Amino acid sequence: MLTLLFDGVAYGMLLFILAIGLAVTLGLMNFINLAHGAFAMAGGYTTVLLMQHAGLPFLVCVPLAFVVTALLGGVMEFTLYRRMYDKPHLDQVLFSIGLTFMAVALVDFFVGSTQQLIQLPEFLKGRTELWDGALGMGHYRLAIILVCLVLALVLQRLLVRTRFGAQLRASVDNQRVASGMGIHVHKIFLSTFAVGSGLAGLGGALGAEVLGLDPTFPLKYMIYFLIVVAVGGTSTLSGPLLAALLLGIADVAGKYYVPKLGAFIVYSLMILILMWRPQGLFSRDGQ
Amino acid sequence: MNSRLLVVSLGLVFSLGAHLAQAQEAFKIGLILPMTGPSASTGKQIEAAARLYMVQNGDKVAGRKIELIIKDDGGVPDATKRMAQELVVNDKVGVLSGFGLTPLALATAPIATQSKTPMVVMAAATSSITEASPFIIRTSFTLPQCAVAMGDWAPKNGLKRVVTLVSDYGPGIDAERYFKERMQLNSAQVVESLRVPLRNPDFAPFLQKVRDLKPDALFVFVPSGAGAAVMKQFLERGMDKAGIKLIGTGDLTDDDQLNDMGDGALGVVTAHHYSAAHPSALNKKFVDAFKKANNGLRPNFMAVGGYDGMRVIYEALKNTKGGQGGGEALLAAMKGQIFESPRGQIFIDAQTRDIVQSIYLRKVERKEGQLYNVEFDVIKDMKDPGKAK
Amino acid sequence: MSAAQRLRTMGQLRLWEVAVWILLLALPLLLPTHALLISEITIIALFAMSLDLILGYAGIVSLGHAAFFGMGAYNAALFAKHLNPDPLTGLVVAMAFSGVLGAVCSLGVLRGSDLTRIMVTLGVALLLQELANKLDGLTGGADGLQGVVMGPVFGHFEFDLFGQTAAWYALGITLLVFVMLRRLVHSPLGYSLQAIRDNRLRALAIGIPVHARLVVIYTLSAALAGLAGGLQAQTTGFASLDVFGFDRSADVLLMLVIGGTGWLWGGLIGAVVFKTLHSVISAWTPQYWTFWLGLFLVLLMMVGRERLLRPWGWGRKS
Predict the structure, then answer these.
(1) pLDDT average, residue stretch B83-102
(2) How many CB pairs under 8 A join A and C?
(3) Which domain holds residue C291?
(4) Co-location of C304 and C245 in the same domain
(5) CB atoms within 10 A of CB A229
(6) Same domain, residue pair C33 and C89
(7) Which CATH number goes with the domain that contains A170?
(8) Are residues C301 and C172 in the same domain?
(9) What confidence tens digit (pLDDT) does each residue in B128-175 have?
(10) Which residues of C touch A84 (CB under 8 A)?
(11) Chain-wide mean pLDDT for chain B?
(12) If you average pLDDT over each of A19-33, B271-285, C186-200, which comes out highest?
């Protein structure tokens, strides 16, 4: 009911923040980056390690996770990803799977494979019940919804109202012409990739409490990010947002009402949608 | 010539002959554990415990050197089976051991039977495992042991309407069934039985459902390592404030993770066979030695299963004078062993080859600044209820 | 040799290939302690060969080929357990079910971009894994399907603990498939597939029925993957949820890429290289083998796949 809807929306918003970087990367650079989940994991672990070893409060660690992951993303784009843009998709897929494996093993080696537990600050721990329990809102999930909403709006403004956004959209539409018009496409790629990865890191930090955090995080959740991108399409911002919300609500509701089927529902839904509209539900371009 | 001299000279001849003929080679123990993947913490604990035992008791038994061959199956039953086969055929191990999960043990059972190699199950906990092969010995525990203990305790303490939440595989189904039956025997009710998938579980929707059912308590079984996620979700949904008590088997408050769960875990009552806070001298020694050798890591029930498993193997080797008589003799020497383990006194039942041990009821409390499962009641010498049927 | 003669003989095995196959068939005799490893590599090679059909010859990127492998494994195991323990009949059943599944799934991979194909194939594999998990009365769920005891091959050769029968069984079947596929890829059907892979639009323009051909090859590929899965279930006597796992699909893709797509030996070479690397590295660092695997993948992709087979090209810019 309402609580379920609330949970589903929270989950969906989180997925959106996690997946939006992937959508933009795919749309802009036509690069299937399966290592996106590894960036999310990096953000999560940055937060956990800073909290545990440097004693920094949660609210400081989350933006730091964004910064650290964005820097990591920028460096990787410049050194590694850039060489892979012209390669066929299969190579990109295997390359990013390789990066993911390395990330998973590195984290396992340095931190260990147990679930990482975060202690949230007190004001985020509570729960508000409305209408005699019909709507129960965990404060943390409420915070997630608010933060992600704000981020979505900021991104929208960035894309639509700023010069950078215009250049980005131009490059997505037609790279060659954009380059011909004097747009520094490589700089756009670098900054977009960095921001996209940073957002993934932010999502990972926020999600550590809700989704759990262990070295297998990228492999577990990659499929969800891919679903958001494939169903939502890569040409708009609202496409992945709606797809993420749909996915979040369907997943939560499915597990509640028909626990026997569980994730089955989500996968079937995805396959059916993709078979019906291969370019995504909300995409502008046909194929 | 008295008999002692005879025995000694025979012994000398034997060992001399052994050195010359190289007949007494090293005794190899194959230890197959999930060192990677979701059950990696199990593998880590058992490996540490096995090595600790070897350090404390030496690596020579009855004149033979003990060689421990550790293999990582990643929690994949195909791999376990293949590794077991290779260990038996290529490395010629005398004993197979480990087995972090039920499917891994079940997959290997035919190999043990075919090759007549004793198999010491140190972790897996489904009742039916020991029936899969006449060569299986278990030193871990079975879920029915804990579920029945809980099924007795709960109604006596005012918890008459309970919902069960278990992971959907062998041990989980065991726990659910035996808890339910025991509750019904005690005129209490299991209102609903929920099963969560083993891989990638998302507890939120299930716990929401429990919340809506408003029971007296929630009985949980999840494999070692997943307890923290359940606890977190339980607290986040305010279920403790809604008057629902959290109970379960000790896997929920696994010593490995317990200290990191925070104060929300205080007061949770579980039934299990081992707590790191068990007040015996042997246990204190074990815990201290383990922590020292492993960077302050606290041993959990998996570690104690591994530790005792090694003890069973060592004793059996001693009793068969280094494994003479092959697998069957070794197996016979393993059956019926009775000794004190860090968990309390345990006994390997000669008929069922399963473990008979005391099940403790414990509550999470803060001791010396850390969270521990503090034992407050005990059911002694509990046999596996699954076998009684 | 005239062009016509050359075309006719292209589908036949060369002398060196016959020699290699004789050596392979003799391996269980020459290395009896490694019979288990031999049958394992052979089965994976067969699986990789089936993937080569769609990847190397039709250009479809699939991250979920394990769906068919798993389907074959469970079907063969269930058939042997409940109906008839004869191995060869079990294989036919496995192939049939997987083939049907392949035909159904082929509808999903016809349209859309590479990403869509990846998602659909991945989704199907995950779906089947979930299904196998839920139908635990039938499949044993997370505990796996126990109690599969195979009858003797041809009513005579029992499956032994040392794995020799299994090795020869697997090798024999793989050889048959190899010969058949060699004929296939050098037939008009095979050539039309390569045309589709190279440029779908052009193939359509010259009148090749693209969709029909893709359905056919995908079905065949699925059936062969099911064959490999059935072999796996029969030789190990066991089937568990990991036959559908993402790891399996990713590993076989990697093996094929290492060995080289588009020529049938790629699967076999890739399987051997991969398994050898795995054994060597795992013996040295059992927990962190995935790190070295990942590093290998990253470097290989950056250097370029074709370079692996032509070491004299290293160092030169392409």
Answers:
(1) 90
(2) 129
(3) 286-318
(4) no
(5) 28
(6) yes
(7) 1.10.3470
(8) no
(9) 899 889 999 999 999 999 999 999 999 998 899 999 999 888 888 889
(10) 301-302
(11) 86
(12) B271-285
pLDDT tens for each residue of B290-301: 999 988 889 999
- Please give the pLDDT value at position C23: 85
Report how many domains make up chain C: 2
Beta bridge partners of B373: B364
Look over chain C and give the mean of its residue pLDDT values, rounded to a whole number.
Answer: 84
A98–C296 C-beta distance less than 8 A: yes
Please indicate if any CB of chain B lies within 8 Å of the CB of A108.
Answer: yes
Report CB contact under 8 Å: A136, B206: no
* Residue B197 near chain A (CB below 8 Å): yes
Rounded distance between C-alpha atoms, residue B349 and residue B337, angstroms: 8
Subunits next to C (3 or more Cβ pairs <8 Å) are: A, B
Q: Which residues contact A173 (CB under 8 A, 6 or more apart)?
A: none
Contact B272, B250 (CB under 8 A): yes
- Asked whether the beta carbons of residue C133 and residue B168 sit closer than 8 angstroms, the reply is yes
Does residue C17 sit in the same domain as residue C155? yes
CB within 8 Å of chain A, chain C residues 135-174: none
Task: Return the half-sphere exposure (C-beta side, CA atoms, 13 A cut-off) of residue A272.
Answer: 6
Residue span of the structural domain in which A27 resides: 2-276
The reply to whether residue B257 touches residue A108, judged by beta carbons under 8 angstroms, is no
- pLDDT above 90 as % of chain C: 20
**More confidently predicted of A26 and C309:** A26
The beta strands (E) that lie in chain A are given as 127-130, 135-138
Shared domain for C246 and C302, answered yes or no, is: no
The answer to the question of residue A281 being in a domain is no
Contact C108 A271 (CB under 8 A): yes
How many CA within 13 A on the CB side of residue C4?
0
Indicate whether C55 and C161 sit together in one domain: yes
And the tokens for C66?
């394990």
Type of residue numbered C307: R
ipTM, 2 dp: 0.81
Residue B75 with chain A: CB contacts under 8 Å = none
Contact call for C141 and B168, based on CB within 8 A: yes
Q: What angle do CA C185, C188, C192 make, to 5 degrees?
A: 80
Query: Angle of helix C265-284 relative to helix C35-55, nearest 10 degrees?
Result: 130
Of A114, A251, A256, the CB nearest to B208: A256
- pLDDT by residue (tens digit) across A176-189? 888 898 888 888 88
Judge whether C85 is closer than 8 Å to chain A, CB to CB.
no
Q: Per the domain annotation, does A253 fall within a domain?
A: yes
Whether B11 shows a pLDDT value over 50: the answer reads: no
> Is C146 in Cβ contact with B169 (below 8 Å)?
no
Q: Is the pLDDT confidence value at C48 over 60? A: yes
Q: Do C307 and C203 share a structural domain? A: no
Q: Which of A104, A113, A139, A223 to mutate to test the interface with B (most CBs of B within 10 A)?
A: A113
Count structural domains, chain A. 1
Please report whether residue A188 resides in a domain.
yes
Test B106 with C143 for CB contact under 8 angstroms.
yes
Say yes or no for a CB contact (<8 Å) between C115 and A97. no
Report whether pLDDT(C314) > 60: no
Q: Do C301 and A91 touch (CB under 8 A)?
A: yes
- Most confident residue range from A24-38, B224-238, C105-119: A24-38
C69 touches C243 (CB < 8 A): yes
Closest residue on chain C to B35 (Cα): C287
| Min distance A37 CA to chain C CA atoms (Å) | 15
B253 in A contact zone (CB under 8 Å) = no
pLDDT at residue A201 is higher than 90: yes
- The angle formed by the CA atoms of residues B112, B145 and B249, to the nearest 5 degrees, is 110
List of chain A residues whose C-beta atoms are within 8 Å of the C-beta of residue C62: none
Question: Could you tell me if C194 and C110 lie in one domain?
Answer: yes
**A124 secondary structure, DSSP code:** G
Q: What mean pLDDT is predicted for residues B342-347?
A: 90
Ramachandran sector of residue A277 (left: φ over 0; alpha: ψ -120 to 50; beta: rest): beta
What pLDDT is stored for residue B45 in this prediction?
92
In the structure, what pLDDT confidence band is assigned to residue A170 with cuts at 50, 70 and 90? Answer: confident
Please check whether residue A200 lies inside any domain of the structure. yes
Residue B136 and residue B121 in contact, taking contact as beta carbons nearer than 8 Å: yes
Structure tokens at B156: 């006596």
